[in-house]
């Protein structure tokens, strides 16, 4: 007898919820000596673990400076501020809201442009078409951990003498043309929150090869105070605590394994779901490596038989958690509608309505991944009765 989807009365694929993420954290005995040192010395911030962590990250990324901050968002705020940006900044709308909120906090005007529908990253041609005399910078995003078209964007930035910044929140573990993302552009800002491959609890890293920018953001994370108690500019309290730096330092040891593990799981997902009509995958450019902070598919409702939202509901009945990133896109969010010029963002709108992110974590058991894929297959095979069932609710 053919298995029925849970939404039609079949047994769920999982007895308990499969979460979106399972942070991989060091064992306590790996942390114990460092924790004891922090507690015994009372040096809970601005201490040796912060310096060691910054040096280790800079070495890993191959950059001159890695500045640790309290969050990726505060890092973006400081970079935008310390680069002296003004006027208009070109940015995707298909991104997390913090990419744009940090611009607005700095009194800058976001100019939304479209992304490539295959890679879900900023389209250099769309960027160039949006450049005006008021444009001072381009902000690109490594969406879901897929490296942006860095060379294409750098060519536009060079042509028009613009700053190039990357929101690399999903970037740890990603590689661009064989090298870690982070050393390209004027600055890249990473997240270290629990959903990422490199974890410090909360926190961020600003990576740059520019000495002046690194010095400015280090001052900026201390209120703009250079130590004389006279603020050179209005900064933030964006310091990273020692406990976070210690956690990040231990997590860094697992980063390469995390990236390899997630790429293996992504390959399994793609192989198992690649034959299902209507399912599309994010394209990774030759020579690049995705970090797979998220594993995201697109749903062509006409071919799959269900909309993205219907599939999400059917998977919820199977105890499989999912996310709809980024819906709504930033230009349609209440705080940022005023910056929407009405310029068509066709790919952004389509991706926003049709992308679905699946559970993904380091060392995901192959059986878990396969059962997720099998649930998708079964739901597709029963798409018409599933559609009718959901429509009747």
Task: Describe this structure as you would to a colleague.
- It is a single chain.
- By secondary structure, the protein is α/β, with parallel strands linked by helices.
- The protein has two domains: 28-252, Type I PLP-dependent aspartate aminotransferase-like (Major domain) (Aspartate Aminotransferase, domain 2, 3-Layer(aba) Sandwich); 255-391, Alpha-Beta Complex (Aspartate Aminotransferase, domain 1).
- Helices cover 39% and strands 14% of the residues.
- The protein is built from 14 helices and twelve strands.
- The protein has helices at 28-41, 48-61, 72-82, 98-105, 124-130, 150-160, 211-220, 242-252, 255-273, 301-304, 308-317, 346-354, 366-381, 383-391, and strands at 65-69, 88-92, 109-113, 135-141, 163-168, 175-176, 179-180, 187-191, 204-208, 279-281, 295-299, 355-358.
- Strands 1-9-8-5-4-2-3 form a seven-stranded mixed beta sheet, with helices on both faces. Strands 10-11-12 form a three-stranded antiparallel beta sheet.
- α6 (150-160) links the parallel β4 (135-141) and β5.
- The radius of gyration is 22 Å and the shape is globular.
- The mean pLDDT is 97.
Tell me the strand order in the biggest sheet.
1-9-8-5-4-2-3
Based on secondary structure, the structural category is alpha/beta
What percent strand?
5-15%
Fraction of residues in H or I helices: 25-40%
CATH architect. name of the largest domain = 3-Layer(aba) Sandwich
Number of helical regions: 14
Determine Rg (CA atoms, Å).
22 Å
Instruction: Compute the separation of the termini in Å.
Output: 26 Å
Let me know the number of strands: 12
**Would you state the CATH class of the largest domain?**
Alpha Beta
């Amino acid at each position: 007898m053919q298995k029925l989807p849970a939404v039609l009365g079949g047994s769920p694929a999982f007895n308990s919820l499969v979460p979106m993420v399972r942070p991989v954290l060091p064992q306590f005995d790996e942390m114990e000596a460092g924790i004891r040192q922090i507690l015994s010395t009372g040096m809970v911030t601005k201490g040796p673990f912060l310096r060691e962590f910054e040096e280790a990250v800079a070495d890993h990324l191959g950059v001159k400076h890695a500045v640790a901050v309290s969050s990726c968002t505060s890092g973006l705020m400081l970079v935008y501020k310390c680069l002296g940006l003004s006027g208009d900044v070109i940015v995707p709308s298909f991104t997390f809201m913090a990419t744009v909120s940090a611009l607005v906090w700095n009194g800058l005007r976001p100019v939304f442009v479209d992304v490539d529908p295959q890679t879900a990253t900023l389209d250099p041609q769309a960027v160039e078409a949006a450049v005006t005399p008021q444009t001072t910078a381009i902000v690109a995003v490594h969406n879901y951990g897929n490296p942006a078209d860095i060379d294409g964007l750098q060519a536009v930035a060079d042509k028009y003498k613009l700053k190039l910044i990357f929101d690399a929140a999903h970037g740890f573990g990603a590689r661009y043309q064989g090298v870690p993302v982070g050393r390209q552009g004027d600055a890249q800002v990473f997240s270290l929150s629990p959903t990422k491959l490199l974890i410090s609890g909360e926190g961020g890293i600003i990576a740059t090869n520019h000495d002046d920018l690194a010095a400015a953001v280090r001052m900026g994370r201390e209120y703009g105070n250079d130590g004389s108690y006279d603020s050179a500019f209005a900064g933030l309290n964006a310091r990273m605590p020692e406990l976070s730096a210690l956690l990040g330092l231990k997590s860094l040891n697992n980063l390469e394994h995390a990236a390899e593990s997630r790429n293996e799981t992504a390959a399994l997902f793609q192989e198992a779901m690649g034959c299902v009509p209507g399912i599309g995958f994010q394209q990774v450019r030759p020579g690049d490596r995705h970090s797979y902070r998220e594993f995201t598919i697109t749903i062509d409702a006409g071919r799959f038989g269900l909309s993205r939202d219907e599939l999400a509901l059917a998977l919820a009945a199977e105890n499989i958690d999912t996310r709809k990133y980024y819906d709504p896109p930033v230009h349609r969010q209440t705080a940022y509608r005023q910056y929407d010029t009405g310029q068509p963002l066709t790919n952004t709108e389509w991706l926003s309505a049709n992308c679905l992110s699946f559970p993904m974590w380091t060392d995901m058991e192959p059986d878990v991944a396969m059962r997720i894929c099998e649930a998708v297959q079964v739901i597709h095979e029963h798409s018409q009765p599933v559609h009718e069932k959901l429509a009747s609710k």
